[in-house]
Design goal:
With 64 residues, this protein is α+β, with helices and mostly antiparallel strands. The protein has one domain. It contains 2 helices and 2 strands; from the N terminus they run βαβα.
Length: 64
Amino acid sequence: MELSPEARFRCLVQSRFLEAARQGIAQIEASHPQTRGRADVVVGDITEPGLGLADGDARALRES
C-alpha cells in the first residue's frame, strides 16, 4: 500500500519518551526519505482525560 504524499502522522507520546520518539522518527526518515516531515510527536498520555493534551495541542489537532 502506498500513502498519499500529503498524509501526515502525529504520534502521541508521554513526555518521558519524547526523545526516543523523535529518534525513532529520524531513523524512519533516514531509511525512507519520502517520509521526511510527515510525522511528528505530540506530548500526551492515553490514560489521562483528554489524552493529557495541552489546550493548544488539542486545538491544533482538531483543526487539522
